[in-house]
Structure formats: C-alpha cells, structure tokens
Amino acid sequence: MLKCHLSRIMGEQKLKIADVSRDTGINRGTVTRLYQETAVRVEFEVLETLCRYLKCEISDLLEISPDVDQ
Question: Where are the domains of the chain?
C-alpha cells in the first residue's frame, strides 16, 4: 500500500489545500485526493511540483507500507 504524507507535511508548514492549489497550479481536487489519501493515480509532474513547492523529497511525500492482508 502506498501512503501519502501530504496532510502531515502541509500541517507542519501550516498550508491549506487552497494555498497549495493556488500556488502550484495543481487542480484543487487532485490536492484534496492526495491530502485525503483517496487518489488512485497521480502524474509524475504533479509529484515533482509538490516536492519542489514543499521543499521535500519524493520519499518524504510517499511511502510504501506493508499491506494489512499480507
């Protein structure tokens, strides 16, 4: 399972979904789905834009965690 830490990172930087969407040009719905971890797919360009904006590495944003079923 892939875990997205966008909500934690945004919280640490005191950012709102609207701020990130406005400042990066990423669709608000895309940011919301990543924030709520409901996204099923995401474009590399979006990930790169988020990492540059948040000044973080991709490994800070995404993590592979073991499936509960395994």
Answer: 2-64
> 2-64 has which fold?
434 Repressor (Amino-terminal Domain) (1.10.260)
SS (H, E, C) the chain: CEEECHHHHHHHCCCCHHHHHHHHCCCHHHHHHHHCCCCCCCCHHHHHHHHHHHCCCHHHHEEECCCCCC
| Average pLDDT taken over every residue of the chain | 95
Whether the CB-CB separation of 10 and 20 falls below 8 Å is answered with yes
pTM, rounded to two decimals: 0.90
Q: Computed from CA positions of residues 45, 4, 2, 27, in that sequence, does the dihedral angle turn out positive or negative?
A: negative
